[in-house]
Each structure stands twice: as C-alpha cells, then as structure tokens.
C-alpha cells in the first residue's frame, strides 16, 4: 500500500518537507486554480508534477500519484451525455494527466453541494477540534436561512421545532458562519461557492431530477470516459456522498453498497472504480465497511481513511480520531491489505489519512479546515502501525 497526503499546492500553506516528515510518499493533489469545466493542459500538469517530484538533493522523493479531483461540471450532473463539451473537457484533462503518468483520478457526483459540515472547529474532549455535522443546525439553515421551497416536507414536526429553537438562539455572526460553512464551498470542494439566492436558483435546476435520473447521468458520463480511461491505463475512483444521504431534497447516488453495485453493473469496465472513504460511508450505520470493501476490493484504487462518531439518532456526527469512533479500522485495513497483496507493484492501493483533528500548534495557526498537518500526521502514523502489524511488507516506498 502507498501512503498518500493531500496537498493543496504551493499556496496551500504546507511545504513538501512537511509531507516528507509526516512519512507520506505519494501526493494527492489537483489544479484547484483551473475553473470547473475548463480542460487542464499537459503543460499545467507537468509544471505541478515537476514541483512535486523534482527532489532537492538529500531529500526523500515524492510522487504525484492521485488527482483529487477533476471536478464534474454541474451541466454533466444535470444532462449526462448531452453535456458533450463539458465531457470532452474532462477527457482532455484526463489525457493531460495520463501523458504525465498520473493515472488514478478521484471524482464525485454530488449535485450543488459537495461534502457538507455545519461546524469546522467543534471542540472534542481532548481540547482538539474536529469538523461536525449538527442535524439541528443544518435544518435551521435549510428551513430558516435558505428557506428552501417545500423544505418542511423533509422534516418531522420534532425536527422543525428543534430547527426553529436552534435558529432563534443564533446570533448574526452564527448565521453568517453557518452560511460560509455550507454554501461557500469547503476546501477541496468541486462545487462553486454560492450566495443564498444563487443556492436557491441552483436547487431549482434539479427539481425534475430524481435519483434514477442522476444515476443515469453518471452512467452516461462513465460510458463516455471509461473507454478512454482504459486505453490510457487510468483508474477512475468515485468518492462516496458526504454525508451519505439526501441533502436539500437532492438525490445522492453513491451512499451505500447497492449504489456502487448498480454503478459497477451498468459500467463493468475495470477502469470504473471507487475511492473507499471510510469516514463518509461510516456515517451510515447500515453500511458494513469491511463487507463493502471485500465485495468491491478489486475496484478500490484509492482510499480515504478516517472515522466518525454518530450522535443522537445518527444524523449528527463529528470526525473522530482515526482509530476511534464508529469505524472498525483494523477490520477494514485487514481487507485492504489482503487485496493489496494480490496486486502488482504498479497497482498498489493508495491511501491517505483523511481529515485530522486540529491540535497542538495547529490550534494557534490558520489551517485548511479538515487538513491540519499534526492531526493528519497522527492519523497516518496510527494507520501505518496497523498496516505494518498486519503485514510488515505491506507499505511501499518511492524509488
């Protein structure tokens, strides 16, 4: 298995030496500065690759092995194959990456909003902070700030009462922060920042798109891109919905085992794979993560490893330390290590320690929400320990 680290580029505030010191060997990155829907050029990719891989004398080499992500445009999500120009631009980006020998691509198909949290610095019992999804705060946003049309139909009477109480207790600063957290696109998001009016307008464009139609649009996209991916030797990895359920009345189609089975059955190409995100999938108590990993093992090319702790009725959750919470990380890693043993050296599973706690010196610094150095370094060290205990030869190094 290969140890990855998400890096937001030269302006992301984290030097590559920090990645080396954390023990990672593989960089997970993207050209975040390129507008969504615009094709990446080979020159742009090569410049970023050279920045990562031209190793200074005496330093440990790094390799850019995963792209996270080439964003899927909103038009593709709404129109499927009919969004031919946007699909062509996406394919051009994939070709630019393959030309530079970067052949694992992560993407998601979440409409309007990408991964969603209500709080970015929720204090846990250690004094560190974590990201948090509070169902009452989310409902307060949906019902009383966004004022989405017919939103009340998605909530029980008890939910509506709790949301009203939560909203009435919020200050103007609380409201503005909640808007920023939900509507302004979190780091690494593949959706556009939205004002409240623009948010409402975007939701209206999905009024007639249900889960079946959204899934069909994804299948049509994959039918166009996977033949090219096969020729290029590229592996596409679909990230799960986060959280794995409908938000704002929108369909979500990558939330559980049945969802992924339907996608793989429709497009059986081995280029059509998954990013196994234990944190996203783990929010749903019905998801048996080790069983899912075992079923889809041959299609797991990339993995996000983190844990969440579900609260109350299971709709609220916070991001736990990597070996805590509701994810059986040892059981999951046992499956991934067993699969990895079967693979050739060039086809090993790349994983990264996902969202880490903000802790120690990072509490006094400006950090990218979810991506502080120290919390992720702790997570990577813990994951490395489990993997090594399962198989002392499992971890790969860059040569």
TrEMBL record:
EC numbers for this chain: 4.2.1.8
Q: What is the protein name for this chain?
A: Mannonate dehydratase
Tell me what organism the protein belongs to. Answer: Paenochrobactrum gallinarii
Q: Which cofactor does it need?
A: Fe(2+); Mn(2+)
Pathway listed for it is:
Carbohydrate metabolism; pentose and glucuronate interconversion
**Function recorded in the entry:** Catalyzes the dehydration of D-mannonate.
Which UniProt keywords are given for this protein, alphabetically ordered?
Iron, Lyase, Manganese
Checking InterPro entries in the record gives: Man_deHydtase, Xyl_isomerase-like_sf
Keyword hit for Phosphoprotein: no
GO molecular function, one example?
mannonate dehydratase activity
UniProt xrefs under Pfam families: UxuA
Q: Which family does it belong to?
A: Belongs to the mannonate dehydratase family.
Biological process, per Gene Ontology: D-glucuronate catabolic process
Q: Kindly give the PANTHER family that the UniProt entry links to this protein.
A: MANNONATE DEHYDRATASE
Catalytic activity, reaction form? D-mannonate = 2-dehydro-3-deoxy-D-gluconate + H2O
Does Lyase show up as a keyword for this record? Answer: yes
